[in-house]
Amino acid sequence: MVFLRLGMGFVVGCAVPFLVNDMIYMTIANSFLRPHLKFRIERERLHKDQAVPTAMLDSYLKDVIGSFLLFFAAIGPVIYESIIKNRRE
Question: Please, what is the average pLDDT of the chain?
Answer without folding.
Answer: 88
